[in-house]
Amino acid sequence: MAINFEITQKDIMGRLGKLRVGDKTIKTPLLLPVINPHIQIITPSELEKMGVEALITNAYIFSKSSEFRERALNEGLHSVLGFSGVIMTDSGAFQQSVYGDVDFSNSETVAFQRAIGSEIIVPMDIASPPDRTHEEAEDELNITMQRIREALQIIDDGHLAAPVQGGIHTDLRKRAGHEVSELNNIFCPIGAVVPLMESYRYKDLVKVVMAAKSTMSPSACVHLFGAGHPSMFALAAAMGCDVFDSAAYALYAREDRYMTPQGSYKLAELNELPCACEVCRTHTAEELKKSEDKERLLALHNMHVTLAEIARIRQAILEGTLWELVDERCRNHPRLYDGYLELLKYKDQLEKSDRITKRRFFYRGKESYMRTEVTAYHRNLSRIDTGDKALILIDGKDGKKTGQEDAGEVLLFKPPFGPYPPELKETFPVGQSEMPETDEDMFRSGCRGLKVLVESNPNTKFTIFGGEEFRHVIDDELAELKEKGRFSYV
To answer: What pLDDT score does 104 carry?
Structure first.
């Protein structure tokens, strides 16, 4: 295949990967800056010097350009743009969705993209906006799938991207994910999500992406079309999105908007420039506001911030701390936080992709006990055989001092995970976890793990020592088991 995707590390559903496009290999997660040949605030060659390995431009704009069409056909995109990395082209579907019908058929745009040397080619898919009814979105999905199949007759060497559409209807997104995987496409953009992000509907974004991911091949490289602001990259990466494209760095600069990983500021509101990039360290806020080159400088800053966030996400995936980064980023906006809480509901889907061991588990509040590390630990407690008798030491006391020397198997207890054999004290997640003082939410989570252990060992007589402060929580979480006499207190 001309496009190949190799996953080298995982955390949650996020992946570090190597995307091979022809004879070029680029690392993911990956940012594709959007380039308009007519408006280049930062040139492709400058982006390449900043470490950009791939970019995206629009085939429709090139096809209608009196200045660039013939040059692109004769010289190729790489020569025209002065860029040696991977170049992806969009089909013109965006223009079609915004401005109505465009004078460009599916087969024409696919053939044109091939002719100008695009390395990742997108068919003329239909991006169904959120207000589409199920019937309307299904009709548009049918057309998109028909066009993907038509394009595969022209681009049969693996360079075709297969967009996953379906509007906000999760059953259609699941169907689309399954169908593009059946066609053996490696590069699969999830489209029509820009309206959700523009209206801060991150909860719906999570539903759409997780639905599509549930049926897509795990070997597919997933491009989240139009996800351009760094504040939501971590959330998207946690759902398994590998590629992002951004025109925001330039569009925001045009509006005097200064990007940070936590959100954006109007330049006029800033007295300081809270960034370590070259622009911010060589200009004061007042100098930037008055600069004749303000738009370009802001675009450079915005690009630096965007690239830095991609690097930060790659590092978090490598060391197994992506959950902490998601938590930090999503607390910067209430709607992002809604998306974070929605993602936590998909524990079964997330657990299947998450790694077994990580660098640490850092407790950051009640959301932490809904994370995959905790839910997976609870599930695995069913594998522990506790024999005829077992003593649970809630407060970490020495079992010999409880008056229960003949209590059988001795297990310790650490919220939010619950019971664990002493042999696992130095292993992940129990040993590599940082916790504040135990509160009721943490303890209640640990009791859910205790419940799994007790239910999984019906022939064991359990004795619980300690934890007087939270015994009402134990009674609440294990009420039915207490009525059946499955455990007693000391």
So the answer is: 78
Going by pLDDT thresholds of 50, 70 and 90, the confidence category of residue 228 is confident
Please identify every residue annotated as catalytic. 90
pTM: 0.94
- Is 277 annotated to bind a ligand? Reply is yes
Q: Which CATH architecture has domain 366-489?
A: 3-Layer(aba) Sandwich (3.40)
125 is in an annotated binding site: yes
Q: Where are the domains of the chain?
A: 3-353, 366-489
The mean pLDDT of the chain is 94
Given this structure, which CATH class describes domain 3-353?
alpha beta
pLDDT digits (tens, 9 = 90+) for 155-185: 999 999 999 999 999 999 999 999 999 999 9
Binding residue per annotation — 311?
no
Helix/strand/coil (H, E, C) string of the chain?
CCEEEEEEEEECCEEEEEEEECCEEEEECEEEEEEECCECCCCHHHHHHCCCCEEEEEHHHHHCCCCCHHHHHHHCHHHHHCCCCEEEEECCHHHHHHHCCCCCCHHHHHHHHHHCCCCEECCCCCCCCCCCCHHHHHHHHHHHHHHHHHHHCCCCCCCECCCECCCCCHHHHHHHHHHHHHCCCCEEEECCCHHHHHCCCHHHHHHHHHHHHHHCCCCCEEEECCCCCHHHHHHHHHCCCCEEEECHHHHHHHCCEEEECCEEEEHHHCCCCCCCCHHHHHCCHHHHHHCCCHHHHHHHHHHHHHHHHHHHHHHHHHHCCHHHHHHHHHCCCHHHHHHHHHHHCCHHHHHHHCCCCCCCEECCCHHHHHCHHHHHHHHHHHHCCCCCEEEEECCCCCHHHCCCCCCCEEEEEECCCEEECHHHCCCCCCCCEECCCCCHHHHHHHHHHHHHHHHHCCCCEEEEECCHHHHHHHHHHCHHHHHCCCEEEC
Q: How confident is the model at residue 130 (pLDDT cuts 50, 70, 90)?
A: very high
For position 99, what pLDDT does the model report?
54
Question: Annotation-wise, does 275 bind a ligand?
Answer: yes
